[in-house]
Design goal:
It contains six helices and no strands. About 65% of the residues lie in helices and about 0% in strands. Helix 1 runs antiparallel to helix 2, helix 2 (about 35-65) packs antiparallel against helix 4 and helix 2 packs across helix 6. The chain starts with 9 loop residues before the first helix and ends in a 5-residue tail after the last helix. The chain has one domain.
């Protein structure tokens, strides 16, 4: 029997979500006001940040099993912001505070500044319906 190799690693999923958020942030900067697409895009950011946080937990668990506690702690320290911003952006969406969203996105932007976007790879189908999906969930904040 041969080894099973998981090609969908936490790092690969994390990079995918980071790229998605970077593209959404760029598109949000071009929007003149809040419309249904903006609501969907901001809600998709919440889902991506949650998924990034989940990949961090996966990596930390794997390193702790190998007794790499220092590496796990450093990694967790580097990515603490994903969980915090997921909660704060979700709270803004749920409380309907769309005027506060640009300031929060500007605080989030430095975490994505090193992602170079030459061509947009995501389209509106990726976040279509995210607002309704988020609002249908019980609040996690």
């Amino acid at each position: 029997m041969s080894r099973v190799i998981n090609t969908n690693s936490p790092q690969k999923r994390r990079n995918h979500h980071m790229r998605t958020i970077a593209e959404i942030l760029r598109r949000l900067g071009q929007k003149p006001g809040v419309d249904d697409e903006v609501k969907d895009m901001v809600s998709e950011i919440v889902f991506c940040l949650r998924d990034i946080d989940a990949t961090i937990a996966e990596s930390v668990d794997a390193w702790e099993k190998r007794k790499y506690w220092k590496k796990a702690d450093d990694f967790q320290e580097k990515w603490w912001w994903a969980s915090q911003y997921a909660k704060s952006v979700e709270k803004l969406v749920r409380d309907d505070k769309w005027d506060d969203v640009p300031a929060t996105m500007m605080k989030l932007f430095p975490h994505f500044a090193d992602i170079e976007i030459n061509k947009m790879m995501r389209d509106e189908r990726d976040w279509l319906g995210s607002y309704e999906k988020l609002m249908a969930e019980p609040p996690k904040v």
